[in-house]
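Hi Y.,

Following your request, here is the sequence exactly as I used it, all 259 residues.
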Amino acid sequence: MVRPCPWGKVKWDDGCVFTIGQLARHVGVSIKTVRVYHDKGLLPEPGRDASGYRRYGARDAIDLIKIRTLAEAGVPLARIRELRSATGEEFRRALREIDDGLTARIHGLQATQERLRRLAAGDLAPLPADVGAHVERLARWGFTSRWVNLQRDLWILVFATHPDQATVLFQDQREILADPALRALFLDYDRAHDLDADDPRLDDLARRIAEATRARYGSDDPPELDAASQIPALIQGTVNASSPAWRRLDRLIRARLGA
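Below is the corresponding structure, written out as tokens. Let me know if you'd prefer a different format.
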């Protein structure tokens, strides 16, 4: 016997049932999604009644809500199918693992959101406080605004891509610039930006820089990024592209150091 039932369902003697469209609508998925879950073995497909319709009960609705919740959490359908046959404890343990994964994703998204907000405000990425203070100090030492801005951008790049190694590199450069004689070499490098590429002063500067490099590091290699990283080449390419004199100076230094 059929009689009306709430929410547009059809009531049989054994309880309220849904058509596939009603089930999908009440759970908040599409009919296509329900059929995909049938095809993937996630939701058993009921047989047809005498009228040729498939009828879904309350248990089907509960199962569909569980499947939808797991799918929205990013759980692969194959994993959801496995969980359908899990014991109660296995299912709870899996849910805890999924929850931990969601927490990590949320933290990652929050960090991404914060970077987007800084980008919208014109601040690509904040530098560590000591690095920011060091960059600001460059201007007081007599470096041009061009050099200060270049250093800020390059340190942002290094700290964003290699945060662990960046700290070692920064400490090395801070020590170098704390030495007045070595700082003078960097100031000369900065001022060489506007020289002609064939200016003989570049040869002398390259010699002085190579000698200072050998004196500081001896037979040891200077701190550098991972050998597999393309960032050093990108950084030097950025520097060289801004000045023909800097480009030639880089070649002269490399030749003297045998690089």
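The longest strand covers residues 10-12.

Thanks again,
Q.
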